[in-house]
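Co-fold these.
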Amino acid sequence: MLNEGLPPGSEVDLKNGMKETFQQYLSERGLKSTLQRNIILDTFLHIDRHVRVDDLCLILRAEHRNMGHATVYRTLKLFVESGIARELRFGDGFTRYEPVTEGKQHDHLVCNVCDNITEFKTGAIEQLKDEIVRSHGFQVDTLKLELRGVCRQCIRQ
Amino acid sequence: MLNEGLPPGSEVDLKNGMKETFQQYLSERGLKSTLQRNIILDTFLHIDRHVRVDDLCLILRAEHRNMGHATVYRTLKLFVESGIARELRFGDGFTRYEPVTEGKQHDHLVCNVCDNITEFKTGAIEQLKDEIVRSHGFQVDTLKLELRGVCRQCIRQ
DNA sequence: ATCGTTGCAAAACTTTTGCAGTCTG
DNA sequence: CAGACTGCAAAAGTTTTGCAACGAT
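Predicted complex below.
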């Protein structure tokens, strides 16, 4: 362990942890650590927020002219399989991905006016999970909560 | 009013109300009530559950050989605009539509094993809406809650 | 008669797949 | 040096659009 001295929850710590997790995932499966995968991971973690695949491609291609979009799609799927990313679909036709930051569970507020997507947290969710297990015998793995409406800025205008 | 005698919340009542709403929506906007639109609406209401567009097309084409899928897509969008239907996307690439039945708010449990989608109700949601308004100044119009995991049947097997 | 609507086909879009050449372990 | 990976192009799949013929008001 190289970052013993750092506070355990720091940004850098988290990101390094995710990189480690990904490298481990690759080697465990006989997959390879390539230049492209590392570039995509760095860029993805640097953005540090949900991002559309085509946006990520654009950002990547700005620096790396011949990065194939197929590679980006394939790599993002690997991120999800390794557990360091989550796939998001808000139903507008674009798939988004975001880093999985443990202990930072959040959901999304989508503004119907400006289309901005805001993250928010709520404690009411965990209770809900328990309720579902009890009433439906359904084992909950993931929970997706999305609220649409009008955001503060757009209400004011 | 033709159905005065019926209990106000009955199936028939609800569906007739939705048909009326749709007809009113059309005439208000100078749009036309056509054979196809009425067939699609009847079939859609008869299914009475979320349905994939391509499934609905198949069902419709069984009876009406030359119903165009473009017409189905266009009509379903009209349903949403008129407020009698809701668009659902679970992120599997298929758009689904379901009738909006007021006072029957429900959400969805998606099983990762058998891919079945179950509807469920919970009371915890309304509190959550209020919480969001207070803490984020966000005016909530619609709320989408989706839980993924393993359903009762699949747990048993 | 006007203008919205339909059905067909083609286009548009995101995402996936096939393949020859390249690079990692 | 075997086999995984990349980048390109083409394919796949759903949804949208253009257009001539049709139909509702």
